[in-house]
């Protein structure tokens, strides 16, 4: 699904993976930060609760779109598997996970590093309380929205 979307975007905007690869990494970083903003775990100065789960899920799958595009750009072809029995992370653990993910985005230049980052991101989703089914369903829905956006000159 992501490959088809990427090909549509590349055709519509006359770009290719080598030209946009660094932009994909920056977009992934932005989405990771938007996710952190919605989860609110780092906002020690605020008592406001995290955003609703559907908002967090949408931000999370935006990251899935970009890391998948990065995988496709570098020819990653193996499936990444994770267990679903990770406990929900506390605020301190989330801080470390997000810092680790954000600081390693710049180095996503090999298949090995990309797959390692992707696995950590998938584990993050579980540690945020998201289920595989929720992630897949949300990804499919967002992919459809992204196609519609391309059809409407987004």
Notable traits:
154 residues, mainly alpha
Task: Give the helices and strands, then pairings.
Blueprint: H1 2-13, H2 17-39, H3 53-73, H4 91-104, H5 111-127, H6 132-151
Helix pairs in contact: 1-6, 2-3, 3-5, 3-6, 4-5
Give the overall form. globular
How many H/I helical runs? 6
Count of individual beta strands? 0
From the alpha carbons, calculate the radius of gyration and give it in angstroms: 16 Å
Mean pLDDT: 94
* Distance N to C terminus: 19 Å
Structural class: mainly alpha
Helical coverage, percent range: 55-70%
Largest sheet: none
Helix-strand topology string: HHHHHH
Written description of the protein model:
The chain is globular, with a radius of gyration of 16 Å. Helix content is 69%, strand content 0%. With 154 residues, the protein is mostly helical. The two termini are 19 Å apart. It is built from 6 helices and no strands. Helix 1 (2-13) runs parallel beside helix 6 (132-151), helix 2 (17-39) runs antiparallel to helix 3 (53-73) and helix 3 (53-73) packs antiparallel against helix 5.
Give a quick summary of the entry.
The chain has 154 residues and is mainly α. It has helices spanning 2-13, 17-39, 53-73, 91-104, 111-127, 132-151.
